[in-house]
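Predict the holo structure. Ligand: guanosine-5'-triphosphate.
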Amino acid sequence: MAILQNTDLRILVVDDQESVRSHLSHELLRMGVEQVLEAASAEEALAAFEQHQPDLVLLDILMPGNNGYWIAERIRDLEDGRWTPIIFLTGMDRDEDLWEGIRTGGDDYLIKPVRATVLAAKIRAMQRLLAMQRRLVAVTEELYEANRQLNSLIERDALTGLVNRRGFDRVLHEQIRLARRESTPLTLMMCDIDFFKQYNDNLGHPEGDKCLKAVANMLARTCQRPGDLACRVGGEEFALILPNTPRSGAMMFARALTELLASGKLPHPASPVSPYVTVSGGITTCVPDESTTSMGMVTRADEALYAAKALGRNHFFSYELQVTAKDHLVAQR
Ligand SMILES: Nc1nc2c(ncn2[C@@H]2O[C@H](COP(=O)(O)OP(=O)(O)OP(=O)(O)O)[C@@H](O)[C@H]2O)c(=O)[nH]1
């Protein structure tokens, strides 16, 4: 009669004696175990363990070659965050043997001959522990995923969907470290919608929100490489973190953004500089060294943005560019 319930259990029986293995297999199947695997040596046991990942192992101790203690230790090494119950089934009845069995990784220790009901009870107890352990793993994974989602929400701007100031601070810090380690150029671009106050005053706050979303969308579209990141760092202020981007690349980026905005033709009836929405941008590029900080880069980009505004807005400005680009890009020094 099947005395074990819900036994989709796969059990590995390790014993060098064929008669013991087949007797145990027969008993286990009679109890209701779904599948029994047999191994006659340490090598066979480990191969079967790796290939079939049994739910439980019944392990003899005295065998030619490596013994059961050795197998238990290897099994514990092979488990990667998992836990497989191991029950020793042996004729060795000294307390020291039992101690060694538990020490090397066994979870229980039974002395042969073992009555079927006792074995079934022990397996049942292990099944319960196994179910708890699996639930714990599942809950840990759920928690990890929930935490990941929470973190990404915390770093997201609700209106535009871009990374917010908090995420910007973290990523910029990380990218400075990375660029310093790899000696690669890092570009930071701070952008600001021109005369946005007038936009709001003229068309109303809801339209202002739509405009912010549209500009955010364009910024995100301009970020084409996987490392590029568009962020909303303030009301109508955006930042772009562009790893591995030298000054020439920063200039191309600014041009692409300006062209995208120009083609978008978002009406801005209150703007003194254009009938359409424009942005100004401050750019800084460097190969970070020990003295480079997030705050230093942001300050430098902000100063460049201020200069771009002073030049009449609808400009990108960098203190570090060597050449003057046509139209909207201005370089100095
Ligand atoms: N619609 C909307 N407006 C916002 C939001 N956050 C900030 N603003 C507005 O953005 C405007 C920013 O104004 P200013 O800092 O004077 O900037 P500006 O008018 O663009 O001037 P310049 O940058 O010098 O061209 C303010 O009117 C804010 O109310 C938002 O989430 N939605």
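Residues 322-328 have pLDDT under 50 and may be disordered. The pocket of guanosine-5'-triphosphate is lined by residues 159, 192-198, 200, 205, 208-209, 212, 235-236, 309, 313 (CB under 6 Å).
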